[in-house]
Amino acid sequence: MCGIFGYSGNKNSNDLVFNGLKRLEYRGYDSWGIAVLDGNKIYQYKDIGLVKQNPKLKKLPKSNVGIGHTRWATHGGVTKTNAHPHISTNGDFTLVQNGMVENFDALKRELRKDGYKFESQTDTEVIVKIVERELKKNISFKKALMTAFKRLEGRNTVAVLDAKSNKIYAIKNGSPLVVGIAKDGIYLASDSLSFSPHTKKIIVLDDYDMVEIDGKDYVVSNIKDGKKKKPEIRTLKYQYEDIDKGKYPHFMLKEIVEQQRTILYATDYNEKELEPLVKQIRKSRKVYLLGAGTAGFAAGQIAFFLRTIAKVDAMEIKSYEFKSYLPVISSKDLIIAISQSGETADTIEPLEVFKKEGCKIASIVNMYGTTISRMSDYEYYTNAGPEICVASTKVFTAQSAWGYLLSMTLAGKYKTARSKLKKLTKSLDEMFSKKSFNYIKNKICKTLVDKEHFFILGKGENASIAYEGALKIKEISYKHVEGFSAGELKHGVIALIEKGTPVIGIIPSGEHMDDSKDLISGMEQVKARGALTIGIGASEYSGLEIFDYYISTPQINTLGSIANVIPFQLISYFLSVLLGNNIDKPRNLAKSVTVK
Ligand code: G6P
Question: 254, 459, 585, 591: which one is catalytic?
Fold first, then answer.
């Protein structure tokens, strides 16, 4: 994980790097650091905790070239010493890294034998020392850095500020790196969002690309063959000037409420745009949906839509469990990768393997110019805009809604899908009303605040919603929440129900699925054992005595499942507000998990 930012040009790099890091904080927020150049001297500032101003930071000399880093600790605890940048012994260069040096132990032993001493526990410092050792051979800085980089195993991306040449060098492998080309200078970052206010023109570096930035000029070359490249300059569709919370106290609440619009943005594709993928699905033997975390549950939801609406043989694979599918996968299969960031290492690894097997790859990603989109034969975007809160909300519903549109298009019902989606978003109004927020916060969450274990039951169209609902509450409230298929109840879960145990049941409308009957009888059984019962779903069941609380959601055919996830997002949010937790940056998590 971790975020890298760099700038070289004619503006003040101190402020640009600082603001860039604030936008990259979702990638890691345990510590951070900035390095700038003044003359031929490097000055740096490091701190633990969130990226924030400090008088010492203000004292750094104003510069036009600088790099910075936000850290999500892998090797070594959260300390100022372990924070990046890591400066060389003589202060000539300083380096930041995103990734994990997998042969770090062996390299460190080798360097110790050669007399090198280490201040930090990081794998990053090892890279610095290898560069120092190479430089003793009287070679150029660029050559030393390339040689050192080639020694690293794993997915690693580095950016280096070199005081002698006044340049920034960066090399990418695995972890993302994007170059932004603006009138005022050159930007470098782990994602294009962090420099979005300054330019829409970007270069997405390939693995083993090196970029050398000198003032407002840049050169891209491949470190394997040493040859210069003429990289493609892409123009981003959207530019995000301000990424702020607006009138909301947290990004999470803002992003939850935005869903009315983002469901429509994600499904703003005409039939022609969907056609290439529709054709590919038709000729594929099997469709595998791939994702991790929330995206993994969206994969489950999309697979459900593909099977039930379009009669496509589709199933989800958790990205990190792909290996057991290798013996059965064939080049006739299609893989659809689901990812918010487009950079999740757990998802990239199977895509690389499946691609080698000859499978076609499609993806639905929220960020632009990412590794996953670039690996895809069919590239689609959720277009939900920046999702800053670590816990994903609007992107989950965007991914699921896109999957619904795709499935309906395959079934020849494109137009119906579009009108149902519009109807769904309109009917979300009530869920975002003051009355609904009050009910969830003051009635439901106040009751839940002292409980430690909750269970969620869903079935069929709501099975993945139960898993995602549980993940959402877990991530921010730190409560122990498990989501189950309602069918599991009698096979074990019911043993956990005691007096007062909260059980949330997702109840679909009886009109469309008879799963509602199973859910109601399951909720009756837990109620009989003293559970505190909450129902989420079709309003026709809101008056039943078995429910202590009930949140009605709009049920527009199977789209009801997408609406049903929203109350979980709101419970997660208000419960965590009551608990005083850090909503947008929950402990130990990072939004983009680019290491394995
Ligand atoms: C992390 C995040 C989750 C996210 C998952 C997959 O675990 O905390 O919110 O769902 O990664 O990320 P992706 O970017 O591939 O959707």
Answer: 591
CATH of domain 251-427: 3.40.50.10490
Q: Are 537 and 411 in contact (CB under 8 A)?
A: no
CATH superfamily entry for domain 429-582? Glucose-6-phosphate isomerase like protein; domain 1 (3.40.50.10490)
* CA 313 to centroid of ligand 1, rounded, Å: 25
Q: In this predicted structure, which of 144-158, 242-256, 525-539 has the lowest mean pLDDT?
A: 242-256
The residue type found at 231 is P
CB of 457 closer than 6 A to ligand 1? Answer: no
What integer pLDDT is reported at residue 244 of this predicted model?
Answer: 79
Tokens of 207: 């693995």
591 catalytically annotated: yes
Residues near 364 by Cβ (< 8 Å), separated by ≥ 6?
336, 337, 338, 339, 380, 381, 382, 399, 402, 403
Residue 270 pLDDT class (50, 70, 90 cuts): very high
Q: Which two tokens stand for residue 104?
A: 């770090």
**pTM to 2 decimal places:** 0.84
Q: Ligand 1 mean position to 224 CA, how many Å?
A: 31
All CATH 3.60.20.10 domain ranges of the chain, comma separated, are 3-235
Using the CB atoms, write b or e for 88-108: b if 16+ within 10 Å. Answer: beeebbbbbbbbbbbebeebb
DSSP code of residue 155 = S
As annotated, the residues of the chain forming the CATH 3.40.50.10490 domain(s) are 251-427, 429-582
CATH class of the domain at 3-235: alpha beta
Residue 201 annotated to the active site: no
User: Ligand 1 atom closest to Cα of 391?
Assistant: 9
CA distances from 252 to 152, 258, 387, 388 (A): 37, 10, 8, 8
Rounded-to-integer distance, Cα 421 and Cα 527, Å? 35
| Alpha helices per DSSP H over 317-429 | 345-356, 371-375, 394-410, 414-426
CA angle 57, 58, 62 (to 5 degrees): 105
